[in-house]
Specification:
The protein has 344 residues and is α+β, with helices and mostly antiparallel strands. The protein has 3 domains: 164 residues; 52 residues, Roll (SH3 type barrels), CATH 2.30.30.60; 85 residues, Alpha-Beta Plaits, CATH 3.30.70. It is built from 9 helices and 8 strands. The strands form 2 sheets. Strands 4-3-2-1-5 form a 5-stranded antiparallel sheet. The radius of gyration is 37 Å and the shape is elongated. The relative contact order is 0.06.
């Protein structure tokens, strides 16, 4: 073995050993100093990201040292292309490991920090999977470039194929992204009682990728495509709170004592709210006279219920009790009357 070659081997070994030492130094510096600094920050995200990058950085430094060391050995210069390809593949693998680790770390941190519903968590994880797929595709394209494979025809083929697939799955994709939008927007949630602009009402049972299932009060299941639901005007009776007011119209004869009518009506409303399940017991009901009708002075009684469905039993009990109280207090609700005048 000649002196020059022997020297090359020594230099290569020194470089590899130095890279290992440097990798260990960087690793311990991260542990000893950088992580201590990041622990003092308000968020734990930077700590978690650094931990995710520790091992990829360690191996990337060693890989770089080995690659530089091998380039110093002139005897293997004829295999330079092969070595470049092998180390390129390993480098892409380490880069992929680091990027996916950072993405997964961010997702885990976000899910832990935010109070998300089960559907929102599922949506967020689905988006994470899409991002992972994109990262893997980019890594695959780098590998093709590493092997000197022309990317333009492949990208053109993917573009034409992707367009054909997108057209074929247009409806499915539209429903899918509408489902993502509704789940992340939070305008409707599982368990909410909603009403669509066409009058359809029911409880939201499931927000799927293609459709949303709604159960009506008669216990029928309605399946609505997400794209149609996203375009509809929706009334959510559970947002921002399940409590809601109930307005019940009524009317009394023109010769009634309106002060007495107000007192009797409010007393009945208080009693019903207190004794009926679904009523807000501490709510102070009130009435508002609003119209001189054909036969009665008309007014509205405003009560408060715990949720939308409770208004049915509250209204039922209130009407029964109000009729009893009006009959007892000689308060009349007049029948419609028409006076006919005849000419001479």
């Amino acid at each position: 073995m000649n002196v020059s070659l022997y020297t090359n081997y020594i230099i290569a070994v020194i470089i590899v050993v130095a890279s290992v030492i440097m990798a260990k130094l960087v690793y311990y510096m991260l542990r000893a100093f950088v992580l201590k600094i990041t622990k003092k920050t308000k968020t734990s995200l930077d700590d978690k990201i650094l931990k995710a990058l520790e091992r990829p950085m360690f191996y990337a430094i060693i890989l770089t040292g080995i690659y530089i060391g091998l380039k110093c050995i002139s005897i293997i210069s004829s295999y330079e292309s092969l070595i470049h390809t092998i180390f390129g593949l390993i480098g892409i693998g380490i880069g992929l490991w680091a990027i996916v680790g950072v993405v997964n770390t961010f997702v885990a941190w976000y899910l832990e920090k935010q109070r998300l519903t089960r559907v929102q968590k599922t949506v967020f994880l689905s988006i994470r999977n899409i991002i992972d797929i994109i990262i893997y595709i980019i890594a695959f394209l780098f590998i093709l470039h590493l092997f000197n494979i022309e990317l333009t025809p492949i990208l053109a083929s993917l573009g034409i194929g992707g367009l054909a697939i997108a057209l074929a799955l247009q409806s499915t994709l539209s429903n899918y992204f509408a489902g993502l939008y509704m789940a992340t927007d939070g305008s409707i949630k599982i368990g909410d009682y909603i009403e669509l602009e066409n009058g359809l009402k029911g409880y939201v049972e499931k927000i799927g990728w293609r459709s949303t299932k709604m159960r009506t009060l008669p216990n029928n299941l309605v399946v609505i495509p997400n794209s149609k639901l996203a375009e509809s005007i929706i009334t959510n009776y559970y947002d921002p709170t399940e409590e809601m007011s109930v307005v019940i119209p009524c009317g009394v004869a023109y010769d009634s004592d309106l002060e007495k009518v107000e007192k009797v009506t409010k007393d009945v409303a208080k009693k019903v709210l207190k004794n009926t399940e679904g009523g807000v017991k501490d709510f102070e009901p009130f009435i508002r006279y609003n119209k001189f009708g054909d036969s009665n002075i008309e007014f509205s009684i405003i009560l408060r219920v715990k949720n939308f469905v409770s208004k049915y039993i509250i209204t039922h009990e209130f009407i029964k009790e109000l009729m009893k109280a009006y009959n007892k207090n000689k308060i009349e609700i007049s029948w419609p009357v028409r006076k006919i005048y005849r000419g001479n």
